[in-house]
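Schema walk-through. Below, the input block comes first and the output block second. Nothing else is stored per chain. Lengths vary across the set, and this one has 149 residues.
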Amino acid sequence: MLSDEITAIVGGHKGPRRVGRGKGSGRGKTCGRGHKGCGSRSGASIRRTYEGGQMPFFRRLPKRGFNNYSFASRYEVVNVSQLENSFDDGAAINVKALALAGLVDSVKSRVKVLGDGELTKRLDVAVHKFSRSAEQKISGCGGTAKVVA
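--- output ---
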């Protein structure tokens, strides 16, 4: 057996670092944790943005303007091509039917139908919002596009 073959086997597993085994080990006494403070305690985890107690960067910056994130209406998007594939001709489609078909996450979702794809079936769709092209495609096939509150 050659020495390069042996080292591949022997070096395959490296054991865990042994701390707290005396000064001579280089990891004795405080075991690499330093003196006092949060990092020296068991179960310690410090968030990445923590700056040692000084005023954090995101609090030093001025806050300006209005953010609409918590007030914005978010819609789940369904395309007319998905309606074409999932429903039969003459079907009455609402949010509940879309949820059962797996096109939206929940019955409580707000839904907007977009006009991507082709539609050949007559569908009666009742959802929260329609794009102009989706409305034209649905009504062009003899169906109805009804907006629900």
